Amino acid sequence: MHADLSRDTFRPDRHYAAVLTQQGRVQLDADANEQAAIQLHRARTTAADLIGQHGGPRGATGFEVGFLGGSRELDDLSIGGGRYYVDGILLDSTRPEPGVPAQEDADDDGEAPATWTYWDQPDGHRDPERPGDRLPTRFPYLACLKVWERSVTAAEDPLLREVALGPAMPDTAARIKTVWQVLPLPGAQLEVEDGAAKDQVREAFARWAAAQASTARMAARSERPGHTDDAPCLVDPDARYRGPENQMYRVEIHEGGAAEEATYKWSRENGSVTLPVDGTDGTWVELSSLGNDDKLGLHVGDQVEFVDTGYTSRGEPLPLLRIEEIDLPGRRVRLSDEPHPSVGRRPELHPYLRRWDQRSGSRHGGGPGRAKGSARLRNGAVRIDEGGWLPLEDGVFVYFEPGGAYRSGDFWTVPARTATGGVEWPADAARRPLLQAPNGIRVHYAPLAWVLGEGSVADLRMTFAPLAAAVPAADEQELAAEAEAEAEAEAEATESAAAGSDGRTAGQDDDGQPES
Q1: What number of H helices and E strands is found in the chain?
Q2: What is the tens place of the pLDDT at every residue in 411-427?
Q3: Helices marked H in 135-247 — which ranges?
């Protein structure tokens, strides 16, 4: 998640049940975040175990897909309201009702839509002008659900900021947002025969979804650069990590694909340096702020990503831009090129710049086996070179396993600490760094409907009934059996009392007293 975090300490394989805060200790963001992650992991695991891979509650199952064709210029799909679970993640497709203004406009007599549609779904950001966004014209095709999570900061949602703290203070916390999209998948990609049954379509989709997972793996380590003997001794001379401050490095795939096509970008601040955009004029961009300080601001030569809500939701990377000039009094920066027309033109999508820290031609220390002199950039990001240790900065190196398939948005985090002069990364008994799958993005899929043609949609959703039920009323047979059991119990009690009375001791009266 792009947030100003110290590190991520949640490890499911450790099976921790809770985080215990100790008195008199320093409070860390990682501890609070781990507690939230433990609870979320437990809740979703329980839901997935009970529900299955996906399903909705009976009577309130969401995401019912209907075909909307006819006289419309472009085909559309309706998305019914309700709830649905995918891998234990709760989704709600109910369209919120619009608020009621204090004074209604006499001309405003239109009714708000009751449900979402394919074109106006909240996190879809589909563009009718893009042919690739349009629904397939060839039937059948599958309407599926794509689900993932992303972070949201005050740069994207200003309501997260407490204005009472003043504009000079940073935002206090970020949020994790669950994103869902209803997307079409051409039937040809599923490789199913005509007339396939629902279960066959579900099985084919499960195979397709499994093939979408990232196979990339990365390792990280710290190594004392060879040129440090000539540098001023600002840190421990034996330190492998040479940075002056603790950092949370983020290595993120920019363009996906095979190694020859893929690129990555990195940030020493976990990609959390963001500057909200107030307006654009050609290559000039007006910002609401140039950063809180020199460390969290912009400098000439920095690589930045022009971002807004639609760009983030689509997940289609655009070339990074370089800062060419900074106008401090005007809070403006000049970029190496004009931003893409699809980004930053709508203020309601809250555009902003995200700073990345790779630079073309910047020299880093070489590592054992393969000395690297400078970063090779393509569209502002670093080309992936598999099978060797690639330098970031200050003695931090990363390694990409050969043969990986990279997916845009996949990322790894590497905490670097001055106290140890190294990075925190899993290693074996011989202290060799272990290859790790990406920390995210974890994408989840579920089939919704098999669209056979206009007005013909086969529902592929699953439903479940509540576990709780009313106590059943007793029938006549059960009442008769209960009455018979009670009669037998009374008879046994009477017989027992009678036997006790006949067995009194000789020489005693009925009250057990000696006879006179």
Answers
A1: 4, 26
A2: 999 999 999 999 999 99
A3: 198-210
Phi, psi of 500 (to 5 degrees): -70, -35
Q: Sort strands 422-423 and 321-327 into parallel, antiparallel or unpaired.
A: unpaired
- Sign of the CA dihedral running 472, 477, 480, 484: negative
Q: What is the pLDDT of residues 327-384, one digit of tens each?
A: 999 999 999 999 999 999 999 999 999 999 998 865 443 333 333 445 689 999 999 9
CB 217 within 8 A of CB 201: no
What pairs with residue 284 in β-bridges?
281, 334
d(CA 227, CA 230): 6
Per 3-state DSSP, what percentage of the chain is helix, strand, and coil (rounded to 5)?
A: 20, 30, 55
Question: Six-digit token pair at 266?
Answer: 């990195």
CA atoms within 13 A on the CB side of 326: 12
Task: Specify the DSSP element, H or E, that contains 50.
Answer: helix 29-51
3-state secondary structure of 305: strand
The C-alpha R_g of the chain, in whole angstroms, comes to: 32
Please tell me the predicted confidence (pLDDT) of residue 230: 56
Question: Residues 6 or more apart from 513 whose CB is under 8 A from it?
Answer: none
DSSP output for 92-106: E-PPPPPP--SS--T
Cβ proximity of 247 and 268 under 8 Å: yes
Are the C-beta atoms of residues 38 and 19 closer than 8 Å to each other?
yes
Residues sharing a CB contact under 8 Å with residue 460, sequence separation 6 or more, in sequence order? 142, 198, 201, 202, 205, 447, 448, 449, 450
Task: Find how far residue 122's CA is from the centre of its chain.
Answer: 16
Percent of the chain past pLDDT 70, that is, above it, reads 89
- Chain centroid offset of residue 367 CA: 34
Query: pLDDT digit string (tens) for 94-123?
Result: 999 888 888 876 666 667 888 999 999 999
